[in-house]
Amino acid sequence: MKRPFILSILDGRATIFLAVVLGIAVLVPVCNLLVPPTSPFHIADHHIPLWGKYLCFALLALSIDLIWGYAGILSLGHGAFFALGGYAMGMYLMRQIGNRGVYAHPVLPDFMVFLNWPELPFYWYGFNSFAYAVLMVLLVPGLLAFVFGWFAFRSRVTGVYLSIITQAMTYALMLAFFRNNFGFGGNNGLTDFKDILGFNVQAPATRVALFTASAIALALGFLICLWFVKSKFGKVLISIRDAESRTRFLGYRVENYKLVAFVVSACMAGVAGALYVPQVGIINPSEFAPANSIEYVIWVAVGGRGTLVGAAIGAFVVNYAKTFFTTGALAAYWLFALGGLFIFVTLFMPKGIVGTISDYWSRERKPGAPVNGTAAPERAPAE
């Protein structure tokens, strides 16, 4: 009997990764809510949003690895899709405040009252509905990626030129969102959130629920990426990455494959941003900063480009190191450490953490041992 496709694409590494992510989704809430604070296994409340943020970053790294690791599209503007998803969720959260704001206006957010806005802008309509907000989380980044990719890929913009214009895109959006008359809070952004789906965003149970949602989203995002790269579509993406001109000569519509991958990646980044915002409690234009998008690419490079699992691990490793450096006396040296880490990986671990470990493991296998489930061929006897 033929196995379901979803089971056929799960190799050992993917299965372990999914088991770890889903295990975290169960164990962390249990250790936070049910284990007493006196127990060494108790997880403090302040760790929940921090680790939830790491999960969102891992999903963002997966979205970048899908297009960079498998299609050769180096985007230095993925922070734009991440931030747009975050703003969509932030707009919903702001509409939930109602008259509990500083100015107690039943409709307008506080920053609009302060800036003397006469009424709610039309593009804020509908964000009092969670379903509409979720739709916008996917639609807005996806639509921007579609329009951008349609023109860029059909113009056959590739390589460093594509990277530069993606960076210009996110920089332009950052400048626009900094303006007070743009209707998104200007420099301060959106903050002071109260409720999500009627639950207090600061309550421990809500934070745990958001953490679990982030873990489930990471697992689903990983399965989606795995489905893409293991299918025929993924094989074409890899051929585009390695030899785009030859793939085009064989009759494939290269721009269509790139466009689909780019849009899917943007939607995943938007979901990551939407889950990130209620856990950190703020979204502002700094999320559009080009430096952020460059840092996201470093996560993927550190973990292992073209490995999926490596991208997620890279996000965890780099952000844990960032937390370690920036919460102590070494805060001023974090950027030096990040730059040094990227240089080290580029020179000595060009395949990243996971890629390097995989190569080492393959070399350590004895001759004749199974490789990828198939026994190595025996050498013919010398004549």
Commentary on this structure:
The structure is a single chain. The protein is an all-alpha fold and 383 residues long. It has one domain (5-328, 335-362). It contains 15 helices and four strands. It has helices at 5-8, 12-33, 47-71, 78-95, 110-114, 130-154, 159-178, 204-230, 232-242, 244-249, 254-280, 290-303, 309-326, 334-348, 352-364, and strands at 190-191, 195-196, 199-200, 282-283. The strands form two sheets. It has a two-stranded antiparallel ribbon. A two-stranded antiparallel ribbon has the order 2-3. Strand 2 and strand 3 (199-200) form a beta hairpin. Helix 9 packs across helix 11. The radius of gyration is 23 Å and the shape is globular. Residues 371-383 have low confidence and may be disordered.
Secondary structure elements and pairings:
Blueprint: H1 5-8, H2 12-33, H3 47-71, H4 78-95, H5 110-114, H6 130-154, H7 159-178, E1 190-191, E2 195-196, E3 199-200, H8 204-230, H9 232-242, H10 244-249, H11 254-280, E4 282-283, H12 290-303, H13 309-326, H14 334-348, H15 352-364
Antiparallel strand pairs: 1-4, 2-3
Helix pairs in contact: 2-8, 3-8, 3-9, 3-11, 3-12, 3-13, 4-6, 4-11, 6-11, 8-9, 8-11, 9-11, 12-13, 12-15, 13-15
